[in-house]
Automatic annotation (TrEMBL):
<keyword id="KW-0732">Signal</keyword>
<protein>
    <submittedName>
        <fullName>Uncharacterized protein</fullName>
    </submittedName>
</protein>
<feature type="region of interest" description="Disordered">
    <location>
        <begin position="24"/>
        <end position="68"/>
    </location>
</feature>
<feature type="signal peptide">
    <location>
        <begin position="1"/>
        <end position="26"/>
    </location>
</feature>
Amino acid sequence: MPAHLTRLLAVLLLAAVPLGPTSARAAAAPEPPTNPYLGPVGTATMHGDAGSSDVTPYAGPGASPSQVTTVSRGAACPTILIGSDGLLVSLCTRILGRTPVAQLSAPDGRLLAELELAKGSLLGGVYAFLDRDDRLVVVDGHGDLLRIAHARDAAGRYTLAAVRRTPLASVLGDDAVVGLVPDWSGRVVMATAAGRVLVHDGTTGSTHALTLGVGERIDNTIASSPAGALITTSHATYLVRTDRGVPTVRWRAAYDRGSARKPGQLSWGSGATPTFFGPRTGADYVAITDNARPQAHALVYAAGTGRLICWVPVLTPDRSGSENSPIGYDRSVYVASTYGYPYPAYPDGAGTSDPVAAPFTGGMERIDVDDDGQGCHRVWANEVRSAAVPRLSTADGLIYTTTRDAWGAFRTAAIDSATGELKGERWIGWGLFSDSLQMVGSIAPDGTQYQGTVSGFVRIRR
């Protein structure tokens, strides 16, 4: 999901029991590398971890959740993170005033505190992360890098406050931060809309910048591993080293961006946040999707060198495209189609899609890297109409998402990662305010799933 989804949201705002022993479970493999400067594993970033794997170590609510509760906030909430204290830290955009706001919630959904953020071209952005002190790290509309902490006073009242503010306006100018993640030394690596990488060192106070390819934009957040920061622009994927705080390109791999934006995507190029995954270190490989015609491809590279391992056609020809980050775990990549997804509006500058419109039919595929690491093969494909960025639980082997039917009804969904079979659904709601709009859900250690919607979020329990 691209960071300029916030602009899209601004336009919109204007106008079970865990599976038993016979159930498939994800094969044992290394979890994604744990970044020591991030908050809890699986819940500290929009895509779960620094590597943007969209994997969680926690069992989810299962195929037949017992409770689905709508939490209305009068705001779209694309980022729902969970701290080590179990409290939810969300980044939302209010319906009235289109104001970005950080919110602190109890596990049952009660609002505990909130803090308005400065609006900007990206209304504060949708991407943020929790640091190891459970502080929300985000860049606001003034171009300030914030660390927002929550506290509880003697009377039991919670507060949210920016306890650290680093102005970046002199470096950013008219540019805007799209996504950010810490590197393995604790520096904050940021990607900007104009195709730049910024690295801020909180110890020295220095900020270094690097411009990637001329005319290349960045529309998605970034990933990181001990090898470096992974960034996909509108033309290519880069691995950027951040040694001593100075960003340098280690490798660049161009991809087929197609001739135009496809319907169901918000920008022209890959819709994917790049993903680290792999069977040995958890970050052996890199996965993205391209924007080729007539059929998109899953691309897998060797993380260390950028060597192309495979280029596999995915999803239905002539109805093939994805706005979402792929799931990456062990040797497997899971890609969900967003082609034709009926966004009620598109962000400024998105341009006209080709074709102008198309039906949303969905579909999901699993691609595995061959055992010898020299190629890939398709394992399964299904017709699930995923309406959110899917998340894989390595504890129960299920992929969790929501679905949207042809009449605009939304349901929870649990998919067997081994076979692609849809194991179960449960009603969420109907219409715009129940729309999960290809946002990401988070799964708490107790198995509760929190899924953002246009009007707040949904709480799904076993």
